[in-house]
Write a structure and sequence with these properties.
This protein has about 575 residues and is α+β, with helices and mostly antiparallel strands. It is built from 20 helices and 26 strands.
Length: about 575
């Protein structure tokens, strides 16, 4: 093919000529050009002409005649290898990504010579290839072009990650797909960062779902993970104490019971000292009541592996007895079946005293935790505590029937009460109606007398109803808990303000009670002050006594012992059954 007469003056005209030759399938062509264009094409061993041929998907032998400014191409061949012209690393990366999406097996990059040399020296092309989906490739740099060949795509799932969060997300996705092997390509900047940050690389792996695996590093930050086993435990990296609290709360929201925390750098030592004392404080602040914890550590990283964790999402820190009492009463009223008190060290000591986790109900009537539980109306429960975190957990199995009935009446759910409690409510209403009097004192005395007349003291094992108002009102049998529960229920229905009081009964010489027997009685509010009523001790079996009815503090304290800071204050002076004040002895 011979070009018509006339000299070519621009690169665009040369490209147009080459395109005509390509369309015609010519094996040779020649053209003349201006002296300026000829000098440009011939410079550096005709490198510009080589590029124009490349852009035209052509190759051939170049003959030339400088006096005539004539260029001849012979033995022309044609190629379908794609190419891209790139003036920056970003453009190179984008081009490789595009060729990867097309699954091109080979391609050519046209770029400035300095850029081509830089890419060859850094090896970044391998990383760009990985991001484009190539497991491996080969390339050769020829001055101002890079010829890429033998491009092999990934044969397993792969992901490009730019930070630790993306790495964790990729591993989580592979875990959901149950992949035992996969590829990870670290983006170039992230690759360079981790090459200088050993701790960062450890944390990236630690915070993911990877449990065990083999890892092979390829060129350009391409990593092949095989033999992968995953953990289902969430993982969180913590740099500050606030991170620890936040992480534990984060685990509590969805109810996670097993998870791992990674303590980094300066956080390690202060949280590890004194058997993790400070760590346990943070756990309590975050609402963790109990958990098992195993740990491993290096100089830069400590792993805390939690299991069987119980975390209360809306935990409230408590530092006073009044706050603890209000917290328990509120949770009972709201119908919760488990409550946890996150106490200060001082409050924990006040409530638990010398007891450990092996609680026995009634072991010591003066231990405040028993006051807290029983006076809130909790009947059957499991009690655990952590001296490390100062958390006390009460698993509520059942309430005193009197408490359950009064709460049902408050909530309008009495129709949902079982048959036995429904019968108890009916009996309590009948007694309250029969005992109603003009004055609160007379009403209280009438209820006191009705229970003394209708109930026999009974403590046989296996008669659990006798611990409650059910036994007192339906069976006519009760122990001190049953008398107290019944008096509170009937008194409440009759319009009185009645409480149950837990403590010890002291031997008075009258009835042979043990010197310090765990005991339960009532407090009733009359004329704006609180008085003691102990129906159990007044039911002597041979008539009704009033020795422990309507008593003030001085008289009550002679025979009963209780934690005064856990309850309402009694009237200072004693009173008589008639309600008239008498002087203190």
């Amino acid at each position: 093919m011979i070009v018509p007469e006339g000299a070519l003056t621009t690169e665009e005209e040369v490209l147009a000529l080459l395109e005509e030759a390509r369309q015609a399938g010519a094996g040779e062509t020649e053209f003349t050009c201006s002296s300026a264009l000829y000098d440009a094409l011939a410079a550096d061993e005709f490198s510009l002409l080589q590029l124009l041929l490349l852009k035209s998907d052509m190759d051939g032998n170049i003959w030339y005649s400088s006096p005539a400014y004539r260029v001849s191409l012979h033995g022309i061949t044609y190629s379908d290898v794609p190419w891209a012209e790139c003036l920056s690393e970003t453009a190179v990366k984008e081009a490789v990504m595009q060729f990867g999406a097309q699954q091109a097996e080979a391609f050519t990059l046209i770029c400035p010579e300095e850029l081509a040399a830089s890419l060859q020296e850094s090896g970044k092309l391998y990383n760009f290839g990985g991001q484009g989906g190539y497991q491996r490739l080969r390339y050769a740099v020829r001055k101002n072009r890079i010829e890429v060949s033998e491009c092999v795509p990934f044969d397993e799932p792969w992901a490009v990650v730019e930070d630790a969060a993306q790495f964790a997300a990729a591993v989580e996705r592979f875990a959901a797909e149950k992949r035992e092997s996969f590829y990870i390509v670290r983006e170039q900047k992230y690759l360079e960062q981790l090459q200088e940050d050993e701790l960062g690389a450890k944390l990236m792996l630690a915070a993911s779902m990877l449990e065990s695996y083999s890892s092979t590093a390829g060129r350009g930050g391409i990593y092949h993970y095989s033999g992968v086993e995953y953990t289902g435990d969430p993982k969180v990296v913590c740099y500050t104490e606030e991170d620890v609290v936040s992480a534990i709360r984060q685990m509590g929201a969805p109810g996670a019971s097993a998870f791992r925390l990674y303590l980094v750098g300066d956080l390690i030592e202060p949280l590890s000292e004194d058997s993790f004392l400070r760590l346990h404080d943070l756990e309590a602040e975050a609402g963790m009541s109990t958990a098992r914890m195993a740990y491993s550590f290096s100089t830069t990283l400590r792993e805390l592996q939690y299991s069987e964790a119980k975390i209360v999402a809306d935990a409230v820190a408590l530092d006073s007895l009044a706050g603890a009492i209000a917290c328990v009463e509120d949770k009972v009223r709201s119908g919760e079946t488990e409550l946890t008190l996150f106490c200060s060290e001082a409050l924990y000591g006040d409530l638990i005293g010398s007891l450990d986790n092996r609680f026995t109900i009634g072991r010591d009537g003066m231990t405040r935790i028993y006051d807290l539980i029983s006076q809130a109306g909790i009947y059957d429960y499991e009690l655990t505590s952590s001296r490390a975190s100062h958390a006390i957990t009460v698993g509520i199995k059942s309430l005193y029937p009197g408490t359950e009935i009064t709460l049902a009446l408050e909530n309008g759910t009495e129709k949902a009460l079982g048959a036995r409690l429904g019968q108890t409510l009916a009996a309590a209403r009948d007694m309250a109606d029969a005992c109603a009097a003009a004055s609160p004192l007379d009403t209280a005395r009438n209820i006191h007398d009705a229970l003394c007349d209708g109930v026999v003291y009974e403590t046989r094992e296996g008669t659990t109803e006798n611990d409650t108002a059910v036994g007192a009102l339906l069976n006519g049998l009760a122990d001190c808990d049953g008398y107290s529960d019944a008096f509170r229920l009937v008194g409440t229905l009759a319009g009185l303000n009645v409480r149950m009081q837990h403590g010890n009964g002291i031997n008075t010489g009258f009835y042979g009670f043990l010197d310090a027997a765990t005991h339960m009685w009532n407090l009733v509010e009359l004329d704006g002050t609180w008085r003691m009523v102990d129906v159990t001790w007044d039911d002597a079996g041979d008539g009704i006594r009033y020795s422990w009815f309507n008593l003030g503090l001085d008289r009550a304290a002679r025979s009963h012992r209780w934690n005064e800071d856990m309850t309402v204050p009694l009237l200072a002076g004693r009173t008589s059954p008639s309600g008239l004040r008498t002087s203190s002895p």
